Amino acid sequence: MNYFKKILRFAGPYRKYGYLNIFFNILYALFSALSFAALIPMLDVLFKPEEKVHAEPVYQGISNLKDYLQDYINYRVTAYSGDDDMKGLVLVIGLVLVLFLMKNAFNYLAMYFITFLRNGVLKDIRNKMYEKIVDLPISYFSEKRKGDVIARITSDVLEIQHSFLSILELIVREPLTILFTILVMFGISTKLTIFVFVFIPIAGMIISRIGKSLKRKSDKVQKEQGEFLSIVEETLGGLRVIKAFNAESKFYNTFKKSTDRFFKFSNSLLNRQNLASPTGEFLGILVIGVLLWFGGKMVLVDKTLDASSFIAYMGLAYNILTPAKAISKASYGVKKGNSAAERVLEVLESENPIKDKEGAAEKMDFNTGIELSNVGFKYEKDYVLKDFNLKVEKGKTVALVGQSGSGKSTVANLVTRFYDVNKGQILIDGTNIKDITKKSLRGLMGLVTQDSILFNDSVKNNISLGKENATMEEIVAAAKVANAHDFIMDLPHGYDTNIGDGGGKLSGGQKQRLSIARAVLKNPPIMILDEATSALDTESERLVQDALEKMMQNRTSIVIAHRLSTIQNADTIVVMSKGKIVEQGTHDELMKAQNSYKKLVEMQSFSI
Q1: Rounded to whole angstroms, how far apart are CA atoms 516 and 478?
Q2: b/e 144-169 (16+ beta carbons within 10 angstroms → b)
Q3: Residue-range definition of the domain harbouring residue 456
Q4: Which among 206, 315, 361, 384 would be 20 to 30 A from 81, CA to CA?
Q5: How many domains in the chain?
Q6: pLDDT, tens only, 289-299
């Protein structure tokens, strides 16, 4: 129930719908019991016309309430019908129909209002999960498969609605229906009702034993669902490679193994769950059978119960079965929903280690430079950067070069605060970036990465991502700086053309120039370029490099370079190896020194 309480806090904004649901459920439960109790006078009219009540009965206290109500209804029926028994029958039938109509109307109204609560909670949980997913650090998703996260925000949240939130419909209605029904049953026959209660605990024990393993089985199902969604996500992302290497059958077999496991776990779960309904129904009918024997003995042998009361009593006893079955199914739902809630709450309650400290400052300008002072950083156990020191003065371009794994991209990740340093500090204008809000820090920076990350939207919306309410003139001007305007105008709908998932309708060079246009429009004082030309052909590289040079004018730039030919004009070139700086200077200075940088240049020249 701990998970249920945590999920229930999302119901707060919709509590008025909950109160209305409770109100109409109380009325439903009351009329549910009364509608069966009203059968007694109808049966009396049919089977005991000789026992008409001609004088208005006198109320003699709560102990005789049942007889008083029965005699009063008989008196009213007698007064209305006179000698015509059919008029009395029609009156009683009308009373029963009105009671059943009211019962079902209140049931509908109760379900109507709970719908807004259930769907509202579902919406808010999904919104909160998405907000959390966007807020969590990049490191969180390097440990989790994307498909598993997608499964949590879709199927797991839906499971919470089907299991936990369905209990909200039952939590008042079904217990009250049972309570009111039992009160009426006690009113008809105390002896018979006490006899029924001997069997209810036995039935409850049997039902509870069935549901004990449901959470464990449900957990397996939901984890496996995340697994095959991950396979689908990876397949769609790498379809070209899969086809190029004729690996379709390999991926199909991996997916098939996952769905086979899902099939097995789902069968086990559903078969255990499906056992609840027939077991509950059989136990209920067993109770009814025993009631027929014991109650029939009271009517036929002991003469302590009249036939019409006994028939109504049987209807009431059967009326308990439906809510009792619903409660037993709901208890299975809680066990099944526990697993889904655990997975959802694991995301919602994940702490983001990279957060604004209390009193963090808003920094809106950039004046002197960036400094990395004695920085040490590790992703897991081994340090990627060790005692790393670097200064980037305002208006200067600093290029980081070195072999793969030397720590170049890590520097970019730390300056943008996608990760926090383990040792040392990073300063902007002499202020530790941990003392600056993340939003204002990243507002000072533009980022162009090796993988052009674009979205399934129009060219215009992709360029204006970093600047809300950008004018069309500003978007076009940014595209011209990025050498993108000409190819955009050749697209079917120009700036309104949809570029497909991940910009799939564009070439690599076109995608990269859109990324540059996006950074230009944001117009930040600091630009970080992470191997922005490494994946391009020579012609595209020339256009992109020209765009980059125009963009970097009068800006402070940190360039992570794979192709050394692109950074020869940098103010400082920093050569890195195994997380440390091995040499730095201008291109000419480093070539004269004839150390690591010259070897890298010669290796690239030779390979070209």
Answers
A1: 8
A2: bbebbbbbbbebbbebbbebbbbbbb
A3: 450-523
A4: 315
A5: 2
A6: 777 787 788 87
